[in-house]
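Project standup — Tuesday

K.O.: blocked on the structure for the chain from last sprint. Re-posting the sequence here as requested.
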Amino acid sequence: PHAAVGTTGSSLAENGNGSATLVQVVRLAVGDVQGSPRSSDELVAWVHATKARVLLTTQLSCNETADDNDWAQARNLLQALGSASVLGVSFGNELELLFTQPGVDRKCVERLWRDGYITSKLVDRVRELDEIPGFSSTPVTSSIGWLALAQDP
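H.V.: unblocked you, prediction finished:
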């Protein structure tokens, strides 16, 4: 079973029929654990105690400073989790929908796609991931939704 969680909680996921299943995989955005070091420490302890595996998502957006800060926190969290607890790393979340977010204008979208921001950040991030001991063979991905298949989104 898979679960998307934003907080550390029970290691059981409700099945909708009154029963529960042990959570084995958690999709987690770095932003879900930002804030106090205690929240990330609790998350790491929960993952290790339950032997769950994490698909960690780090943001890509129109704000390079925020993206770099998010990635720095992701690297710290990855090191704390250890490679055995990490299923993979996802860069960006539904990147084709960024243009629908408040404050994202045409200039930003062109910078992301036409001017190569997404590509260059992906290459840099994967290189940096490979430099973290134990993570050189960690799978990487990006979340792209159905709108990416439209001819002119």
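K.O.: great, moving the ticket to review. The longest strand covers residues 86-93. The mean pLDDT is 83.
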